[in-house]
Design brief:
54% helix; 0% strand; globular
Length: 84
Amino acid sequence: MKKTWRSFEMDTLMNILTEIDSSIVWDQENALIDDRMLDSFDIISLVSEMEGAFDIEIEASEMVPDNFNSVEAMRKMIVRLQGS
């Protein structure tokens, strides 16, 4: 059975992102890393918050732009890591 992404999980992710930077329209961006909207400090903060909120462990090998360039990419990574 395919796992679905519940709205409160998306709300949690959006709250984490908004706490990092409330000036970014997160769900409309697709190049957060490539366009340098998130820096290394933001990523470290984001990873820490995501690990705690979603009970996952994000290994260094997961910290690549493809996993953080958009909200959808982050969602997919979280779902994948929750299933592993």
